[in-house]
C-alpha cells in the first residue's frame, strides 16, 4: 500500500535537509502536545467516540470494572480454573478494591452458559428482609419510606452463598485458591483507584458517626486518597474463615452470632435465624427474540424483564431507516421506557409474595398493544401500567469466558455507595441497604413483609443466536440498567457498532417514571443525554414536548464478552466511564 503524499514530502525533506526536517518535527510535536490532545476520533478506524479497540483472544477472556480483578480472573483461567472459578475470584477481589460498590455484605445474580449441557442457568442470590421487622414497626416510627441508610435498610446478604452455589454446581478449583487474591489485597494492600477515591470522602460525611466505619475504611479518621495504599486486615481474616469453613462460616458460625449481636446493639433486626435460613435459588432465565437474537434476562424480583418489554416495543419500528442519535431514535426509546417502567412499578416484586404475569408481560402481543400508546410526535405524560392477563445504584458487573466455552454473566452490589453504612464489629465489610427498595404502601406487590426479597435493580444479561452463546454482558447503574441493556443491544444490532463502540456510544437516560418503591410519574419526566448528541436532536425533542437536561455519572458502566463462533475468538469490551479492563490470552 502506498504512503500518503505528505509522508513522501517528509521523507525527501529528511534526505535533502536533515536539520530543517528535525526542526519541523520538533515544532509539530510541541504544537500538538500543547494545543491539540489526541482524541478518540483520531484513531485509524471506528466510530469517533470509540475509546479503544475491541480486545480479542482465543483461550479466555475476563472483563471487570477493576484491572486487579481482571488479572485475578485471568490467573485462575491460566492455572486451569474455569470461567465460574475466575468469576468468583474476580468478584472477591472487587469486594476488596471497590468496597463502595460491592462486597460480601451485598447480593448477587448470575447467568451461566454451561458448555457441557449447552444450557443457560440463572442464579438469584439475593437476600430477604429480617423475620423480626414488620410493616407495623415502620408505622410506629411514622415512616412512609424505608430509610436509605442505617439498620432498617439491611437485608440478608446473599453474595457468599451465591459464590458457593456457583462453585458447587460448576467450579473446579478449591475456594481457598479462588479467594487467595482477594485475601492478599486485603491484607497487603492495594493502591486506591480514581473512582473509589471520589466516593470515599462522601462516605465519611454520611456514615462517619456510625460504628466501625472509620476503623474499617478510614484508619486515623482520614479518607484514603487516590494512589494511597489501603489495607483491610479484618476483611482478610473474614475471607480466610469463609475460604476454610465454607458458606456456613458466614451464615451459621461465630460470624453469624457476631452479626446478630452487632445488629441488636445498633438497633437493627437482622438476626442469626435470618442468616442461618438464607438460601439462593437456581432459576430459569427468560427471553425474547429481537431481530433474530435471543436476549435473556432473569425474572423478578429483579428488573431484567424491563429490557425484554422495551425491546418488544421497539422491534415494531424499522431502525434501518432511523439513525442513531436522531430525534426519532431518542423519542421512541424514551417512550418505550416509560411504558415498561409503569409495569415495572406495578408488578415486579418477590414472586413468593406476588403473582407476576411474566410470560404475558414479555409477550409480543402485549408489546403490540402497548406500542399503540406511543405518539410519534408527542412526549407521553403519566402513562398507566398495562393489564396483562393472568435510582442511582452502585454495582459491579463482570463477565468471564474460558477455553471450554463456558461463559458467566455476574452482577453484585451493596446498592448505594457503602451500602447501609452498617459495618459489623471486626469483620471488615459493610451491609447493603437493599431494604430501601421496598414500598411501605400497603397492598402493593413490593410492599414490605418479613422474610421477603425486595425489588432489585441489578441484572445480568446474555444473548444467544441459533441456540449458541453469542454475548455475555451487563451495565451497572441502578434503575439505568435496563436502559443501558437496551442501548447496547440496539447499538450492536440496529446501528452496526462493534462491541467496544456499543459501550462507548453516548447514552440516553430518562428520570421521573413510576417506581416500585411507591413514586408515581407526575409528568413527562426528564431526558438526560451524555455529550455527543447533536443539538438538532435536542431541539426536535423539545418540540415534541420532552424536557432535556444533562447529568453526570448516571450512565452506568459496561462490560461484555462476545463469542465469534466462526473464528472461535472471544471479543472483550470494558466501559471507559469506569476504571475497568478487558483482557484475554
Give your account of this protein's structure:
Helix content is 37%, strand content 17%. The model is unreliable at 1-16 and 21-36 (pLDDT under 50). Among the domains are: 5-37, no CATH class; 65-282 and 394-437, no CATH class. The protein has a 7-stranded antiparallel β-sheet with strand order 1-18-17-13-12-9-8. Strands 7-4-3-11-10-2-19 form a 7-stranded antiparallel β-sheet. A 3-stranded mixed β-sheet has the order 14-15-16. It has helices at 5-16, 18-35, 67-78, 83-97, 135-140, 159-170, 175-188, 194-207, 213-217, 233-245, 247-251, 254-266, 272-276, 305-314, 327-347, 358-361, 364-371, 481-493, 499-504, 535-543; strands at residues 55-57, 61-64, 107-114, 119-125, 190-191, 229-230, 281-283, 286-290, 293-297, 394-401, 407-415, 461-465, 468-475, 508-511, 526-529, 547-549, 558-564, 569-574, 581-584. The protein is of the alpha+beta class and 585 residues long. Strand 8 and strand 9 form a beta hairpin. The radius of gyration is 25 Å and the shape is globular. Helix 7 packs antiparallel against helix 10 (233-245) and helix 15 (327-347) packs across helix 20 (535-543).
List keywords for this structure.
single chain; 585 residues; alpha+beta; 7-stranded antiparallel sheet; 19 strands; 17% strand; globular; disordered N terminus
